Amino acid sequence: MKTKIVWAVILLVLFPKCAYSQLSFGQPEKINDEWRFILKDVDGAQSPNYNDTRWQNVDLPHDWSIKGSLSPTLASATGYLRGGIGWYRKTINIPKEKQGEKIYLYFEGVYNRSEVFINEQSLGKRPSGYASFAFDATPWIEYGKDNLIAVRVDHSKSADSRWYTGSGIYRNVWLVYAKPVHIAQWGVYAYPKTVTKKNAVISVDVEIENGSITGSSLTITNELLSQEGKVVAKETKKLSAPAGQNVQTNMELKVSNPQLWSIETPNLYQLKTTVLQGNKVIDETTTATGIRFYTFDPNTGFALNGQALKMKGVCLHHDAGVLGASVPKEVWKRRLLILKELGCNAIRCSHNPHSPELYELCDELGLLVIDEAFDEWEFPKRKWLEGWNRGTPGFEGIVDFFEAWGERDLADMVRRDRNHVSIFSWSIGNEIDYPNDPYSHPILNGTGKDGFTQPIFGGYQKNAPDAMRLGTIAKKLASVVRQYDKSRPVTAALAGVAMSNETEYPDALDLAGYNYTESFYLPDHKKYPNRVIYGSENGHSFDAWKAVTENPYIFGQFLWTGIDFLGEAGSWPSRGSSVGLLDL
User: Does domain 312-577 have CATH number 3.20.20.80?
Assistant: First the structure.
């Protein structure tokens, strides 16, 4: 008897009405203008008394690498552009009337190994260049006076990626004022209980942070508004918030005849979350919402709102040529519109969390998204220094901080982005299983299994990391994802499918992405009948697409790439890759 397993997801998610709605609390104020910058490591730059008058004036977002000179002495992997150590400084005045409120600094992304100071006091460090993060600056704020923000960015290990990363504070920065009792960061999360074309029941989790020394009795209200501004669902609930603690409540909103979000009609609602203390509003946030449901089936593929759909996807890196990594939203909108006009309906974020603005646009335009966390885990991959696959590689990367920060970075990606209707899956890794880069397995010796009669990828390297570790780590990372979002499947892009099939790596996934291995689709579909398979990275040949169209169990593919990108370059003077559908 044939076993049929359907992986089903019914989803309602949020995306920001405004650029700062990702913050989900308080009163955010963008502070991108009038920073001072120096590309040099200097002593004492975190002090308000330091003289920075000779520093450069810059506005954020700012990528110092793209402004530098190209040199064949730098790494081809990152586009022959420099890294280094830089400092940023900005003075802000905090009004006296804000005394008693909480003051936060929120960074959408700093590449990389950053440390943030306020009035000479270190607020903390964040090594990942793709993570968004916030620090509470309240204890060190001087109200009614100027306060110095200083940020040290250490990208001295500039060959730390297989593609161009950029350097510096290359995404937006926000100053956030909040009452002592407020919605927690990324603290509003909506997910489906049931959704059909006629009715939807949406669960909304609201997390409250009580930063005061007294408990609070609160009233939480969630209102769902149609595009015309009509309230279509409302729920109110009392909540007790103990002093110095975070507390969470759950509410349900019932919607009749929901206008479903789809690729053709990305219908939106507005979700307004309000927190009252007595009769006083102490916090509120409004975000746009989309309601949809979808299924994955190992035999019939993908269906959105009950309609079968093949994903015609592309992979995208986060740079934009001469703009580097600090890409204006308008540029991304133009690019995505062109891709959609070409027939693209899905994006894979290669190979890291992208700017929040990209997800906002995909929500608005009707593009499905795979949000990806990592290109490597506990061990580094080769980073080519003299041209792709040429010379002696380097081995710098997130290996320096993956053990300490990997799970936190993954959790923060999910919590930040889980309220985007465009995202249909979380990817925990790209080509982590690339044979002998670094993991290895005896199957690479060519045992005859899976048709390999000769050694492949150089054969088994007994001194390389054991590929059996892949399953252990993948299960751990998948559990992190599911802790913060149970509504979406977990995926990864497999490069060494034959090797990974010998491990428990694919078993940790809900969707198995195959990179450039169309020949494995049919045999693996027969061997693993409950596995949902798709092309997570493919070449531009028609045969690769035929493998999707002629096999109903393959739900789509993602071309490498949608747009040319910097880095992963050939020999000098090449500075990027030209494999995209669109030129830079």
Answer: yes
